[in-house]
What we know:
Layout: H1 13-31, H2 35-39, H3 51-59, H4 67-88, H5 90-111, H6 121-131, H7 143-162, H8 169-193
Helix pairs in contact: 1-4, 3-5, 4-5, 4-6, 5-6, 5-8, 6-7, 6-8, 7-8
Amino acid sequence: MKKTKLRISFNSPVVLTFSIICFAALLIDYLTNGWANLHLFSVYRSSFLSPLTYIRFFGHAVGHAGWDHFLGNITFLLVVGPLLEEKYGSSNILFVILSTALVTGIVHFIFSPNVPLLGASGVVFAFILLSSFTSIKNGTIPLTLILVALIYLGGEVYAGIFVKSNISNLTHIIGGLTGASLGYVLNMSKIKKQ
């Protein structure tokens, strides 16, 4: 009987790299005593003449307020992300992450100018809604998609109206809508190719 050697594989390059970047950003923020989060990894209203404004439109998605914030987001990304990356491909998942970061960053920049936003939760919500599209077929809407949208996005709308916290419910909603939109586009293009 031949022995099978087990080895560790870098099975989800985009999700793993994004997670490593988030971890590095957290360490950099600790080493700079909060400077990095404020200047690189948070989005808020700032001058369009500053190059850092444009970096923050994307950089906010990799910054986290602490270990609990980081672990909450990254744990979910590492559970769902590899499955999505396997289904949609690395380049499409990279596009989802970058698009979600940009869209949530711009929306926050416009509607919450004085409150810094950071964290990968917009990407998490994009992945949640995107995962619901994995079983879509021509002419059908999965009941799981409807339930996930109602539970996750409905919960964020409720929390945004009735619960006072430092959580950006708008970012979760926009992230979820971005993931749903991109999931629809990605799946429709696959269905048309069949």
